[in-house]
Design a protein that fits this description.
Elements (H helix, E strand, L loop, with lengths): L3 E2 L4 H7 L2 H9 L9 E2 L2 H6 L23 E9 L3 E5 L6 E4 L12 E8 L7 E4 H18 L3 E10 L2 E5 L4 E5 L18 E10 L4 E5 L1 H18 L5 E9 L3 E5 L4 E5 L20 E10 L4 E5 L11 H4 L5 E10 L2 E7 L2 E6 L21 E10 L4 E5 L11 H4 L5 E10 L2 E7 L2 E6 L21 E10 L4 E5 L11 H4 L5 E9 L3 E5 L5 E5 L5 H10 L5 E10 L4 E5 L2
Parallel strand pairs: 1-2, 5-7, 15-17, 20-22, 25-27
Antiparallel strand pairs: 3-4, 3-6, 4-5, 6-7, 8-9, 8-11, 9-10, 11-12, 13-14, 13-16, 14-15, 16-17, 18-19, 18-21, 19-20, 21-22, 23-24, 23-26, 24-25, 26-27, 28-29, 28-31, 29-30, 31-32
Length: 562
Amino acid sequence: MASLVTETNNEKTDQNITLENKKQLFNYLDKDVLQIKTIQLDEILSGSNLEKPNDDIDFGDLSNLKPNNIIKAKVVFKNEKFVYLDIGFKTEGIIPISEFSESPNVGEEHDVFIQDLEDRHGKMRLSKEKAEFISRWNAIKEIYKEEKLITGKIIKRIKGGMVVDLGTVQAFLPGSQIDVKPITDFDQYINVETEFKIVKINEMRQNVVVSRKAILAGSLEEKRQEVMESLEVGTVLEGVVKNITDFGAFIDLGGFDGLLHITDITWSRINHPSEKLKIGETVQVKVIDFDVEKFRVSLGMKQLTEEPWKNISEKYPVDSIINGKVVNIMNYGLFVELEEGIEGLVHISEISWIKHLKHPSDLYTLGEEIECKVLSINESERKISLGIKQLQENPWDKIESKFEINSTHKGVVKNLTQFGAFIELEEGIDGLAHISDLSWVRIVKHPNEILKVGEEIEVKILEVSSNERKLSLGIKQLLSNPWDEVESKFTVGQKVPSVVNKIIDKGIIFTLENDIEGIAPLKNVSTEDRSKLKDVYIIDKEFNLSVEAVDVEAKKIILSLD
């Protein structure tokens, strides 16, 4: 507290200072407001030399001096912590100096908010920040009510969106309301000052929600309508690839989006639009259809170039030899790209004259450059048939002169089936030895009883046809048919060496001279005796048995175990 220096005795002071003098004196003893001043007690008693504060302040309507009201106040003093303001009353109010963006000067007037008429130190507590907030809040409510735009600055990013400084009041800008297009980099908007639309106010929580997208969408809507009305089919536009999906790409045309379908990107075959386009890429497109009411625009890129099937027969005449790239491989053939938008099919049957392919991928890979021959063109159906084997001589054309009937050749067993054996005579030339042509004398149930895959054998050509690409082979035909001489070698009652081959339900099979087989029937042998016979007639054991009957036509020799 500032010191009061008097030049009279204390007794006089106590006797003559009235209550009003004491109140007036107290106002001049404020330690934070007044500087130390030496005055005479007589001056205090008379009040002649006391400078009355607030002489230049219009007290106005003191009824406003209530908590939560905003009033005007003048700066009368400041220090490092507080600013003292004269509000036209008997006491000054104080505000922390931190509430001022710039240090105020003595004599400046400010709108202040009354927080408390008197704190424990007898001071009126004021707030400049609350006064500014309330004033700005009321202005924001008015802007919201009148549906006007407000200017603000995006200051930081938070969960779910951004914070916008509206001047004292801060608002929330949801991430979905920042722009009309998807955002990947939110930081690019920090410190951006722009206009916003107030979309929501919560009076109780004093929250404000704003939108930038609403303004952009509104202006885009007007621009979109304007552009849509001026569109024509065939118009060429420049746009930016905004998004890519499996079925196409959305192109930003500067105010609205158009759809570029995957089938309209290029004349050639693509599996995904990303093979030709990248997000952010600038492209030229042609309007191929649009709907003003629904704001739908269909775009095309391939339509900017000439349709490749035009005059196709002149570019790729039948029998011409062309180079192409394998772009797709199916189980039935290869699709070969001759140029962008032009593909031909090499059917699996047109790949090789001699190789039996299970799948074209056994010989070719995607992206491989190959040579083909044009076999046929169907312009209406946009189909081109290609061939690879036609580039080589057909070995079947000379097959009849190379493999004459009854000639013998060596070959390798390539495959065994239930009905016979495929034997390769030279690369790609296979012939079939039917199961009935494997042996004169043996009853063969499967070729693997006689042959093995990879085994080299000798065969005879039985039949040949270049038209049917057919070679019939025989193995037993390399030998004379032993059944032609069987009646002269085997007579009824004759004893013949017989080697046990196998035992079946009908009887015991024996191998005779020249691998001819004979059978000893067991139809008159009991089940009990049959089991005993197995211990006697052991496989590969030889016996001398009597010939009971010979049937050349049925190729049967009946033996007797007696």
